[in-house]
Specification:
Elements: H1 5-8, H2 13-17, H3 24-42, E1 44-45, H4 47-50, H5 53-62, E2 69-72, H6 79-87, H7 122-136, E3 142-147, H8 154-163, E4 170-176, H9 187-197, H10 199-212, H11 216-233, H12 238-241, E5 245-251, H13 255-267, E6 271-277, H14 285-289, E7 296-297, H15 317-331, E8 335-339, H16 349-354, E9 359-361, H17 366-378, E10 382-388, H18 389-392, H19 396-404, E11 411-415, H20 432-437, E12 443-445, H21 450-462, E13 467-470, E14 494-497, E15 502-506, H22 511-521, E16 524-527, E17 530-532, H23 536-545, E18 548-556, H24 561-571, E19 578-583, H25 593-599, H26 604-615
Parallel strand pairs: 2-3, 3-4, 4-6, 5-6, 8-9, 8-10, 10-11, 11-13, 12-13, 15-16, 15-18, 18-19
Antiparallel strand pairs: 1-7, 12-17, 14-16
Helix pairs in contact: 5-13, 7-8, 10-11, 15-21, 17-19, 22-26
């Protein structure tokens, strides 16, 4: 007999809605067990998904999905939703090439009403959907589910500010688990914690829960009574000031509280805000004890949990950055480190402990992080902003206007440059070389290996203007970075191999594959190092000695480094053909990094194949 008898009977939410309510706790038990077993086999986000099992069941039980729209913020908590909406059998290929995406994806299912991957978008999208339904005369509900970490972003408050006066029939559910990827920070988190921790307010919460369970004729009276009680305890509740009717907090793991509450809120018009308390890792003791460790996991054995890797393993670029940051901070008291809620992912845990007074986690607020760094730089400090490539996109206006325009010495340590693997198109860092290189005053570097990454960070820090060091996810070729703080000459590349006829001009993570391809076809290989300023002398030298130049970059080929090489040649009247290899003009799906690079022709064999095809006139 299957351990998932009830779960296996659910092929879509309509099946769930036909169950007796007394069966739903058993469904939650099976769903949670299936999540643990499934993610242990594939890897993925675990803690956040375990924390939203009951909420997901309740939402699909109450709302007529997909006609009613559920908009998940970020998407770290969408696995239970995917399982209940017909993708249970596909979970065995979660985040694998050609398999189920780790995030809501509109092209994957009609139940994924909005594609996400970055935080704090759900309220804006839900407002758009709610007002669209109103304009079209459709009786359709819109529900945004957002976490307390995502609520720290300015975009969420912009949406609340708009929704409160837009007369939108929508519901915002705050999934409050007191945790983002890094420990939550900021005034909002303190407000929520203070509201929840008081004994009086906890008593009011229980009273509110019972009131929301009343029959419809008494609901309005109950709501007014609840607001009166809350008004005495927490006057001027933040979300009510935005124009929302605020309800809660309620227990997000109690289906007997969740379902009646949602049923009643579904009948109410206007903007509503439900505060739900959940626990990350709920039902799996190891994840409950360390939800950060179990936030994003590789394959593991559920009975044993995540085991420490045996041996040191290869040093990652992220670790190289973290070590460099601590070393530089010891010799220069002006250094300050900034992260938008990615302390662990960006390698800043050690720095945050050793230099707590110079460590700033600004929450999920990339725009603020960049301008905050600019303000620090104005006062003579040396800010280092550790940020993922895909998240830097959110701070682009601030990068242009607040940092580069004022020529301020801010170092951007840009992690996850290029393809990142299983997280897919929302997390691939495929555009940064294109969108940063065009900005005046910026110096842009891409290391070929770990040792060069450390040298480039020191080079960037020594500059008296803005700079970016862009490095990939994971480890490189295994070079040892050392412990010194040596710099590189700005705008100078190097020739790694001399060959005949063809010259490969490689940037950053592509140098290793370029060297292997160069050996295969006896081509020259240059490690360009700097995307801006380009080593013009090196390009001209290569153009004079070779019949074909090949630019190679793990970045969008449109507007990338290869385009800049062509511009340099055109300005000097040099008519040497250039074969530009890079990422195509499309969003790249999820899959293992090496597999994706091979498919896109950026491994050794792909480079050789492209050069031979060009020589054959194909």
């Amino acid at each position: 007999m299957s351990a998932y008898c009830l779960l296996e009977s659910i092929t879509c939410p309509a099946d769930l809605r036909r169950l007796d309510r007394k069966q739903l706790p058993q469904l939650a038990t099976e769903l949670r067990a299936f999540l643990i077993e499934s993610v242990a086999q594939t890897g993925g986000h675990l803690s956040s998904n375990l924390g939203t099992v009951e909420m997901t069941i309740a939402l699909h039980a109450v709302f007529d999905t997909p006609e009613d729209r559920l908009i998940w913020d970020v998407g770290h908590q969408c696995y239970a939703h995917k399982i209940l909406t017909g993708r249970r059998e596909g979970m065995g290929r979660l985040r694998m090439h050609g398999g189920v995406s780790g995030f809501p994806k509109r092209s994957e299912s009609p139940y994924d009403t909005f594609g996400v991957g970055h935080s704090s978008t759900s309220i804006s999208a839900a407002l758009g959907m709610a007002l669209a339904a109103k304009l079209k005369g459709e009786d359709r509900k819109s529900v945004a589910i957002i976490g307390d970490g995502a609520m720290s972003a300015g975009m969420a408050f912009e949406a609340l500010n708009n929704a409160g006066v837009a007369d939108a029939d929508m519901l915002v559910i705050l999934n409050d688990n007191e945790m983002s990827i890094s420990p939550p920070v900021g005034a909002l988190n303190n407000i929520l914690t203070r509201l929840m921790s008081g004994k009086t307010y906890n008593a009011a919460r229980q009273a509110g829960r019972h009131m929301l369970g009343f029959a419809p004729p008494l609901l309005e009276l109950a709501r007014r009574a609840e607001e009166h009680v809350k008004g005495m305890i927490a006057p001027g509740t933040l979300f009510e000031e935005f124009g929302f009717h605020y309800y809660g907090p309620i227990d997000g793991h109690d289906l007997d509280a969740l379902i009646p509450t949602l049923e009643n809120l579904k009948k109410l018009k206007g903007p509503k805000f439900l505060h739900v308390i959940t626990k990350k890792g709920q039902g799996y003791k190891l994840a409950e004890a360390d939800p950060i460790l179990y936030h994003g996991v590789a394959k593991f054995e559920p009975g044993k949990g995540i085991q420490s890797a045996k041996g040191a393993g290869k040093l990652t670029y992220t670790q190289v950055f973290g070590d460099w940051l601590c070393d530089m901070a010891r010799v220069d008291s002006r250094l300050v480190g900034i992260t938008p809620a990615m302390r662990e992912g960006s390698g800043m845990v050690r720095f945050s402990a050793e230099h707590a007074d110079r460590y700033f986690d600004v929450g999920i607020a990339e725009q603020h992080a960049v301008t905050f760094a600019a303000g620090l730089a104005c006062e003579g400090l040396k800010p280092v902003v550790a940020i993922y490539s895909t998240f830097l996109q959110r701070g682009y206006d601030q990068l242009v206007h607040d940092v580069a325009l004022q020529n301020l010495p801010v170092v951007f340590a840009v992690d996850r440059g290029g393809l990142v693997g299983a997280d897919g198109p929302t997390h691939h860092g495929t555009f940064d070389l294109s969108f940063v290189t065009c900005i005046p005053n910026m110096v842009v570097m891409a290391p070929a290996d770990e040792a060069e990454c450390r040298q480039m960070l020191s080079t960037a820090y020594a500059l008296d203007g803005p700079s970016m060091v862009r490095y990939p996810r994971g480890a490189g070729c295994g070079s040892q970075p050392g412990t010194d703080l040596a710099t590189l000459p700005v705008g100078r590349g190097e020739i790694r191999r001399r060959g005949k006829d063809v010259a490969l001009l490689a940037f950053g993570s592509t140098v290793t594959a370029a060297l292997a391809a160069g050996e295969a076809i006896d081509a020259s290989v240059a490690n360009m190092r700097f995307v801006k300023p380009l080593d013009v002398e090196l390009i001209v030298e290569m153009a004079g000695n070779h019949s074909l130049l090949v630019s190679i970059e793990e970045n969008a080929v449109i507007g990338g480094a290869g385009s800049e090489i062509e511009r340099v040649l055109a300005e000097r009247g040099l008519h040497v053909p250039v074969l530009r290899l890079g990422l195509p003009d499309r969003f790249i799906d999820h899959g293992e990094q090496g597999q994706l690079l091979a498919e896109l022709g950026l491994d050794k064999d792909g480079i050789v194949r492209a050069i031979r095809a060009r020589a054959a006139g194909q």
